């Protein structure tokens, strides 16, 4: 079912991610799609691609893929992925490294327009290194059983505090 979605609507990059199960827009401020693989053990980010091919297209891959959620997700779950990102960014050949640290930090209910969801909050920290430059991003994802991520809050670049007060974006279902 999801493979068909990739082949039909995102055909240009589907061949580069043969294990992908779905793609979804990463942020409201950018058309870029995260390309994911969902398995019984984890939800992995395989790459990022622009919706359309062309001279300024984006198609990067993560080696190894970034484990965004690990199953079973518990209140004490914590994991880190160190990865290398390579490919095209806006049509330019690029490479950088990332360290992604994710930690479950609590349980509660997230109220959305679809209703209240019992969730586990997962705090994220991404350290992106490009040459001598390092950029840090922080986030909170709210994962609900059977639904996946039902809410997410992302920091602005170079946020130093784990519990940041200025969000670059907040989304919920």
3D architecture notes:
- 7% of the residues lie in helices and 64% in strands.
- The chain has two helices and ten strands.
- The chain has helices at residues 2-9, 11-14, and strands at residues 22-27, 30-38, 42-49, 59-70, 78-89, 92-112, 115-130, 133-144, 148-155, 167-172.
- Strands 1-2-3-4-5-6-7-8-9-10 form a ten-stranded antiparallel beta sheet.
- The longest helix has 8 residues, at 2-9.
- The chain is globular and about 45 Å long.
- It starts with a helix and ends with a strand.
Oligomeric state as shown: single chain
Tell me the strand percentage band: over 45%
Output the number of helix runs: 2
The largest sheet has its strands arranged as: 1-2-3-4-5-6-7-8-9-10
Q: For the report, how would you describe the main beta sheet?
A: 10 strands, antiparallel
Q: Return the string of H and E elements.
A: HHEEEEEEEEEE
Structural class: mainly beta
Q: Which stretches are low in confidence, meaning pLDDT under 50 for 5 or more residues running?
A: none
The overall average pLDDT, rounded, is 93
Q: Could you give the count of β-strands?
A: 10
- Which overall shape is indicated by the principal axes computed on the Cα atoms? globular
What's the end-to-end separation, in Å? 22 Å
Radius of gyration: 16 Å
Topology:
Elements: H1 2-9, H2 11-14, E1 22-27, E2 30-38, E3 42-49, E4 59-70, E5 78-89, E6 92-112, E7 115-130, E8 133-144, E9 148-155, E10 167-172
